[in-house]
Amino acid sequence: MSLTSMQGALLGTRLTLWLGPVIAVPAPPTIVEALISVQVTLSDEGPDGFQLTFAVGRSGLFGLDYDLQMHPLLQPFRRVIVQVWNGVMPQVLIDGFITNRNLSVSNEPGQSTLTVTGEDVRVIMDLREVSVPYPQSPVQQRIQLILSKYLNYLSAPIVLPGLPPVAKPITENVPLQSETDLEYINRMGEDYDYVFYVEPTPVPNINLAYWGPENRLSIPQSALSVNMGGDTNVESLNFTYDGLAPTTVLGAIQDKRIGAIFPIITLASLRPPLALMPAHLVQQPYVRSQLARDMSALDLPEALSRAQAITERSTSVVRAEGTLDMMRYGDILRPRRLVGVRGAGFTMDGFYYVKSVTHNIKHGEYTQDFTLEREGTGAISPVVIP
């Protein structure tokens, strides 16, 4: 039976903390009862992270040390799973490992705290640098081979959307990894405007790895509503528009295989559209232009992919940041998916890609700070999922 904390005060919502050396199990009561707050940050850039804060006091023989300070389940690289139950439906927010601890000693009785922070299971992939050649291996095979080393943590099927396989002759330069596995996978993703992340499944200790394009074809989540009276579920929502962000790439390369010179030109995003008026089009001719540099050693398909990746990374000119109340929203907002916005006017209403979400959980309080983005203004649909 799961041991829970913070239940009762949160209507229909409770939290379960799992801990363990390799396989996590529900935490013992001594740890659960000391838990003050939980913060979980999920993003498609950089690692996902968590922070657990516990109340501690002196204990043991003659009160020589603070309790939990030496607890074996709260030491570095112990596994941590944070699971939230919304009614009867459990959802795992994060599965990771402790990487840092902080003891804050107070002169006031009962105010000392122990805070442990950590990252998702990808941190295991970022511990050791290696030097590995990949002769005649397309990038998909390299990523698949690397991820196969971590099946203890990536138990679910690995998703690898296809790219045109380009295996170079053995006489050409051999792709070389000379960094950690995580750094190499992320570097390969930058060349194609791909993201890499690991998401927990609803079943604790089982994760899904994803390396591929941003998920802009998902079923939109329940709408974020502002200035809509009783339907309002967002506490704050602010929009910014960066007119200097859009970038195109112009230039030419000479393909080594046939000797011909080909133009390299990118004009706009090839992602599924989320905005009626994308900045790359409506801002013409006031769009940055970048030369196709550092591409002379690439084949034409690789050069085109890398140039398009530069343009894709510059398309998210509209960013929305806000906070929602879990009890009013009634669900967990997931990053790396779509969500609808309503009540902000035609220019800013519509669908957005959820870039990041930070969960802040305390007794009787559960808020979610979020960041959304898209390529321009104007709703492409008159309605969103309420």
Explained architecture:
The model is unreliable at 1-11 (pLDDT under 50). The strands form 6 sheets. Strands 1, 2, 3, 4, 5, 8, 9, 10, 15, 16, 21, 22, 23 and 24 form a 14-stranded mixed sheet that branches. The two termini are 35 Å apart. This protein has 386 residues and is mainly β. It folds into 4 domains: 4-122, Thrombin, subunit H (Beta Barrel); 128-212, 3-Layer(bab) Sandwich (Phage tail protein beta-alpha-beta fold); 221-241 and 317-379, Phage tail proteins - horseshoe like beta roll fold (Roll); 247-313, no CATH class. Helix content is 12%, strand content 40%. The longest helix is centred in the C-terminal third of the chain and has 14 residues, at 300-313.
Give the beta-strand count: 25
- In round numbers, the mean pLDDT is 89
Low-confidence stretches: 1-11
Straight-line distance between termini: 35 Å
The proportion of strand residues reads 35-45%
Helix/strand class: mainly beta
Radius of gyration: 24 Å
Q: For the record, what CATH class of the largest domain applies? A: Mainly Beta
Number of domains: 4
CATH topology of the largest domain: Thrombin, subunit H
Work out the helix count.
6
